[in-house]
Amino acid sequence: MTAPPQSPPQSAVEVSAPRAVAPAPVTQAVLRKRMEPNYPKEMLEQDQPGEVVLSFAIGETGVPEDVRIERSTHPAFSKAVMAVVPYWRFDPARAADGRVVRTRVRVPLKFRTD
């Protein structure tokens, strides 16, 4: 079994809060566990900042599903993000009657070297 990716220094990657992009449920999904993506070595050596915007569904179990990269400044950043998203966990969104509902969210991540 492969060990999960190591986290970079806390200031290296800025992750915005997930925002629902489908019809909004009564309660939003809440992020409970997130692994930070590693800053790609080749981009860090070049002092190259980057951005990745991804979207995914949060299913009934709180696991990201159908993860898609909407935009990325470099494939190395996309690869770093895709390596950690499967480890993220959420409390799923809920409808007014309390039942869990699948929600699609959009998350921008910024890699910076400062």
Report on the architecture of this protein.
This protein is mostly beta strands. It has a single domain, classed as TolA/TonB C-terminal domain, CATH 3.30.2420.10. The chain is 13% helix and 38% strand. It contains two helices and nine strands, in the order βββαββαββββ. The protein has helices at residues 41-45, 75-84; strands at 13-15, 19-20, 30-33, 50-58, 64-72, 89-91, 93-94, 100-101, 103-111. Strands 1, 2, 4, 5 and 9 form a five-stranded antiparallel β-sheet that branches. A hairpin with a 5-residue loop joins strand 7 (93-94) and strand 8 (100-101). The longest helix is centred in the C-terminal third of the chain and has 10 residues, at 75-84. The chain is elongated, with a radius of gyration of 15 Å. The model is unreliable at 7-11 (pLDDT under 50).
Topology, element by element:
Elements: E1 13-15, E2 19-20, E3 30-33, H1 41-45, E4 50-58, E5 64-72, H2 75-84, E6 89-91, E7 93-94, E8 100-101, E9 103-111
Antiparallel strand pairs: 1-9, 2-9, 3-6, 4-5, 4-9, 7-8
Task: Please tell me the total number of domains.
Answer: 1
Helix content: 10-25%
Q: What string gives the helices and strands in order? A: EEEHEEHEEEE
CATH superfamily membership: TonB
Low-confidence stretches: 7-11
Taking the sheet with the most strands, its summary is: 5 strands, antiparallel
Morphology: elongated
Query: According to CATH, what is the topology?
Result: TolA/TonB C-terminal domain
Number-wise, the strands total 9
Share of β-strand residues: 35-45%
Oligomer class: single chain
Work out the radius of gyration.
15 Å
The CATH architecture comes to: 2-Layer Sandwich
Mean pLDDT value: 85
What structural class results from the helix and strand content?
A: mainly beta
Intertermini distance: 34 Å
In DSSP terms (H or I, runs of 4 or more residues), the helix count works out at 2
